[in-house]
Design goal:
Blueprint (H helix, E strand, L loop, with lengths): L3 E12 L2 E12 L3 E5 L6 H8 L7 E6 L9 H5 L2 E4 L11 H6 L14 H13 L15 H15 L3 E5 L7 H18 L2 E6 L2 H7 L2 E6 L2 E6 L1 H4 L2 H8 L3 E5 L6 E5 L4
Parallel strand pairs: 3-7, 3-8, 5-6, 6-7
Antiparallel strand pairs: 1-2, 1-4, 8-9, 10-11
Amino acid sequence: MRGDLLTAKALTFRYGDRDVLAGVDLRVGEGEVSVLLGPNGAGKSTLLKIFSGLLRPHVGEVTVLGRSPSSYGRREMAKILSVVGQDPPLDFPMSVEEYVMLGRFPHQGFFDAGTAEDLREVERALAMTELADLGGRGLHEISAGERQRATVARAIAQGARVMLLDEPTAYLDIYHRVAFYEIITRLKETCGVSALIASHDLSLCAEYGERIFLMSGGKVKASGTPEEVLTPGNVLAAFGVAVLCDRNPATGAVRVTPQRKA
């Protein structure tokens, strides 16, 4: 039976007088690809920041492997959680390979150079994200989409048990969006890595997500498998868009198609 890596109970967070999260409950199990699905402003990014320890809830509690995020030291937490944010790096004066090597810091001493194992993990991460040929290029010399893939590569090289990913495909074309979800699936199947992905990409989340938390207005409106959550009524309530939900004949996964207004 899968254990819980991440939990949130009656979680509330506010900026000023505005509740950004209001009574959120969820559990992310070991070896799961879970998706926080919802429109902009639903509270997805805030929830990821609370799990990573960057923010503290005003009410309720969150746990990472049964403990509060604030109870972990930086290196200890980095061995458990890796984080990919919305904005790809730009101002780092380093090569792609050097940037990905930063992910190895929880496994190194303060003055250690990269070991043979570190180099292998970096090479593996660059290959998985199709960046092997760009390893020697400066971050400022590659596209925004390539920089975002470098951020994913750094998280892979980190070797954490769970990845928190905030709109990780925002700068990627359709080929690399699909490739990203294939990478996450492969990490889960081969390494047991869990993922919690904040997204508003209905189609790809339906195809690759094992558990969906549909968020709107700072609350989890529905949770479960894609088949249970992605219904016309739920999507309309969360996104304000009428959709048709049927099955992809090739994969059997839920397919979500926006409907034109009459």
